[in-house]
Amino acid sequence: MEANVTRNLVPAVEMRNITKRFGSVLANNRVNLTIYRGEILALLGENGSGKTTLMNMLSGIYYPDEGEILINGKPAVISAAKDAFDLGIGMIHQHFKLVDVLTAAENIVLGMPGKLDMKASISRIEKICKDYGFEVNPIQKIYDMSVSQKQTVEIIKVLYRGADILILDEPTAVLTPQETDKLFAVLRNMRDDGKAIVIITHKMNEVEALSDRVAVLRQGQYAGDMPTSSTNAQEMTNMMVGHKVSLNIVRPDPINPKPRIEVNNLTVRSEDGILKLDHVTFTARSGEILGIAGISGSGQKELLESIAGLQKTEGGAIDYIENDGRHVSLIGQDPVKIADMGVTLSFVPEDRLGMGLVGNMDLTDNMMLRSFRRGAGVFTDRKTPRKVAQNVVAELDVKTPSLATPVRRLSGGNVQKVLVGREITSAPTVLLTAYAVRGLDINSSYTIYDLINHQKEHGVAVIYVGEDLDVLIELCDRILVLCGGQVSGLVDARHTDKREIGMMMTRIGGTDHE
Amino acid sequence: MSKAKGEPFIRISSRSALPWYMAWLIRGLSVLAALIVGSVVTVLVTGENPLSLYVTMFEGSFSTARRTWLLVQNIAILLGVSLAVTPAFKMRFWNVGGEGQMLAGCLASAACMICLAGRLPNWLIIALMFLTSMLAGGIWGFVPAYFKAKWGTNETLFTLMMNYIATQLVAFFIIIWEVPKGAGQIGIINAQTEIGWLPVVGPSKYFLNILIVAVICVFMYFYLNYTKHGYEISVVGESERTARYVGIKVDRIVMRTMLLSGALCGLTGMLLVGGTDHTLTTSITASRGFTAVMVSWLAKFNPVWMILTSFLIVFLQRGANEVATTFGLNQSFSDILTGIILFFIIGSEFFIRYTVNVHIGRSRKEAAGRV
Prior knowledge:
The complex is a heterodimer of chains A (514) and B (371). Chain A has 514 residues and is α/β, with parallel strands linked by helices. Chain A folds into three domains: 2-241, Rossmann fold, CATH 3.40.50.300; 259-344 and 427-506, P-loop containing nucleotide triphosphate hydrolases (Rossmann fold), CATH 3.40.50; 359-426, no CATH class. Helices cover 33% and strands 25% of the residues of chain A. In chain A, the strands form four sheets. A six-stranded mixed sheet of chain A has the order 6-7-8-3-9-10, sandwiched between helices. Chain A has a six-stranded mixed sheet with strand order 16-17-18-13-19-20, with helices on both faces. In chain A, β4 and β5 (74-76) form a beta hairpin. In chain A, α12 packs across α13 (383-395), α13 crosses α14 and α14 runs parallel beside α15 (442-457). The radius of gyration of chain A is 24 Å and the shape is globular. The relative contact order of chain A is 0.11. Chain B has helices spanning 20-46, 50-62, 65-90, 98-116, 122-151, 155-177, 207-226, 228-238, 240-245, 250-277, 288-298, 303-326, 331-353, 364-369; strands spanning 10-14, 354-358. Chain B has two domains: 1-48 and 329-371, no CATH class; 65-308, ABC transporter involved in vitamin B12 uptake, BtuC, CATH 1.10.3470. In chain B, strands 1-2 form a two-stranded antiparallel sheet. Chain B has 371 residues and is mainly α. The longest helix of chain B has 30 residues, at 122-151. Classes of the chains: A alpha/beta (514), B mainly alpha (371). The interface between A and B is large, with 43 and 33 residues.
């Protein structure tokens, strides 16, 4: 741990020779990791490299097969979540575990031993907020909160329990740039207070902006660590992947773009009557990637599902424009009818295993989802989908034991390759993607960017809903910003920056381009 | 180095795929373990020789040709209902109304036999029995599916309540059709004329039933695995959102599948009334509609394995009855034995899905050397 000699830090956690197996899979192989007080450590690694497994052993979800864990220099046994709390370890997961109908304070004290004294608890919560710079109203209900507020509650929850070792699993995935900055400020305050902080993230710019030290896992093994100040994104990525990779997203100029999808005053209400899309109007052109930015839940899902014929709409029009200029109305259609009209529209939904694929089915049967109706008579045809599966596996380099493996057993990146592979097999003219690289590591992400660019070059109109503004700005041609279901702005991606889009995400209009 | 205090010594983790022969080895061992535990319980509770108990159990099913035919007939009926409820369960539609759907079929065929006797030729009556029993069962299955599709009602409660309606309807018609008046039962229907009795084909009067169920079994195997309908059922069962995403109309599939499921239950009910029992009682189905749920799940919805699981259940039930009568033990003891065996068989699935590692005071070095 050369990196820390100069800074004279005290280890909070020492993991020694930790090994964890799942069946025949070696998730962690003799990993040595030290986490220091007063330091923010970024834990890096590709999907399936064992980051989350390693951290889950600290938070009591898994128990190591071999090796030992020292907390504050003493051997510790963490066999349940409660042990982790007792040792001052708190983990903030990607998916929040809060009770919607309770207030922030009620959620925070939930499950604490002793007599319930709301007043004392609230004043303690307020003190924590003041100390670290959190902004949260303890008596606000969770269902009234934004994603970032919920995350704040989760963090206060572990601090309230006395955690001084905090682990955050991809904390910025759901935040706007402004919210991310706020979170980072809070994390820095906590570091300066002497807490040990680990963040798991795939975003290199965040690693560089926030962390003091990076530790890299590769295929379950410890690949090394270094001070953040003495490394760069390229070096870290190479270390994660094990060989050199290029980090540039190419953006070819659109060739002969023509209007392909015209959305006019589209209005959508959810089943409970909440306005999800409010008179949204835009045009997506062929040979172009149209990015959609916005805080999660601003209507992205409804927009894509309306175009794909999966969402009931209240008003407005969605037209598909053929090469000869003929308009075909997609509104009120379902996916089968849209296909019957000769419109090849592909959709990569956000929820890969819950919507795009069937987790328990194998690769062949998942390919069949789009083509099973084409079999002879009452029978299905498995031969064609099997061929499609073979092609996708070969061309996109999907790592799978066989075509008969249930897709839920594949890693996140491979699951996405299977899904995207199937969707582009039909040679679509419109490709809708929602958070296509969420949870994917750098390598897989770049594969997906390449695939999307390839579709663009083939004249496909791509609509790319994304959350990483850096990527949106680098990959897309134009970016439509949604805010609370309304179009907040439409910008040229070649002439914009994160700040501008971030402003539009939170306030209608921000500034107006175009 | 010794293990730190409080370290868990039993660790459970999920397995990746297990080769099929290992899975069956585990299942075989679990049956063996069940027999051993059953023996111990037998000796402790009754003092009987466990070995002779098991021999008796076996004899209950195989000692005579008649018993064997009876065994196979019982398997056939149970298998029929199990096959019928399988598409519903594969669709994750909790159809616990097999009982009612079967009874509806029983009632419809009994009605044909009683009301049409002498008015129509026998072959037409039998044809109508096939048709009406499937229709009645189909309606009994369709109604809960329709309500679920339209208003999102809970299918478990709904199908369960449909059972009571069927039972009460049967009770009502038994009073109307009772022979002789005031007996409260129907007795053998058309005992003299044998109108509406399924013809005897082949070596036994049970043979036709067995044949029909065998056909249903083959049909169901292909239906579930090789047809578009079967594929749609799997997709809906695994993920309704995925189904909608590819344009499958979930409501339609649910209603269609329950119509089929109910119709096949009804048909099996007809086999019982027209093929073997030739009577109608409220308990004619002998809870097979519920047992079928277990048969179907144990076989993981595979129609071919269902032959095995329904054999197992019927064999155990018949064996247990035989034990109870031969040894003068009461019925509850045979239920205990059946319970022990089922407990082990169902429990073995846990060991197929998970591996359990025991770490007791083993040194780290040894643990590290373990592969």
